[in-house]
């Protein structure tokens, strides 16, 4: 409302006065010829109008003064509020600056006080919490060397090499040491007591973060905001390169978490943690057990080149985004049982020194284990691979278990090396299965496995017994140029389409009893060095064994109907065949020569 000026007030008064006088004059004129009593009433009415007009003007001015007073009061109140806000902001700034200054003190007690002062600032001022978190993270990122567990014995005297050296050698060594000392600035040694005090300060900083960023209850559906010390989940953590000691972060809930190159001294607990943004653990080192059971990674989870010195637990963890464990090293047991991987999962080049357990895990996106090394047992029992699974050039030094695993996409095991027993019993391959040039040094079990797509075992090497008993090959089965050094069992197997065993080598017994070949069966140029049994096998199409060879002693051999071992009396052996080996020929060829 605009302010009233004296001129405006005078003008308003004159207008009201004019209106009153005009009304009075009109009344007097209209009643001038009437009775005296009427004229007297007119005069009274005119006077009343004049007085009323003046009262209205006075009332208007009073209302205006009241409104002006209220506006003045509002302005004063706003100024007081702004002053109070500025005072609070200055007080917060002073507390913040003082706390930060305390963190730079050389006294542990003062640094403790600075951390607690920052905690109070964040607790009372929600808009300052991310800033306080950043300051505490920056403190933890500062260089730090944990104190030794026990004093190191100091050696005295000369070393064995020094005692064996000549006097001239010792003089030269001392001169070289003196030059190194003169060129290298001395590094002041930190007393162990100061290191231990700094350890306690850092533990306090860790506790402040985990106390306010970890859900009070493990139940994610509970009302966590009812707890005043919980700061909710919209905060970031950046602890790049920090040294964290026995980090208790179970139920942690943060947005983006950066633990790149972090050194976890002792165990690290991230059970039931929730990372709503990207989680970075690249090149992190876990010297103690790492617990991530039931953790939830909503965005990308990056563990490239991470080192797990002790046990690593990711049981029932949920990875919604991409997962990267490229080049990661697991020295202790690694367990991912019942974990869920929704996006692409990459373990290329990872090393599992101890047992690796992925039992009942689910991979919805591509699973990449190319070049991965499994030193001890690798367990993938009842695992579900919805997309492609890549284990090309993977090395399984221990037992490998894929029993009842389900491969919905293509399964790639090309050039993989299985040094000990491998089991794919009752596994289901809906897409193509690629085992070309794979090396099976131990026993291989594919009993009752189901291959819906094509099965490629071309040039695969089976050094010991291999079992495909009751296996079902719905697509083409390729075993061309495969080498079976141990017994090969295909009893009761079903080949719906083409079965290729051309140029395959069976060094020991080959068992195809009760096998069913619905499509063509190709055994051209195959080698059967010992017993071969096809008794009870069914060939619905063509069975070809051209230029296939078998051992002379074939009492235990049962060949497909229409094929037999060449009669040595016919002298039809092809020059250059291996000693003691004879060709397999159609039965009519043998009958014609008798």
What report would you give on this structure?
The protein is of the alpha/beta class and 594 residues long. Helices cover 29% and strands 22% of the residues. It contains 8 helices and 58 strands. The strands form 3 sheets. It has a 29-stranded mixed β-sheet that branches. A 15-stranded parallel β-sheet has the order 1-4-7-11-15-19-23-27-31-35-39-43-47-51-55. Residues 152-160, 180-185 and 589-594 have low confidence and may be disordered.
Report how far apart the termini are. 129 Å
- The averaged pLDDT comes out at 85
Strand content: 15-25%
Low-pLDDT parts are: 152-160, 180-185, 589-594
Please give the oligomerization state of what you see: single chain
Radius of gyration: 45 Å
**Count of individual beta strands:** 58
Q: How many helices in DSSP terms? A: 8
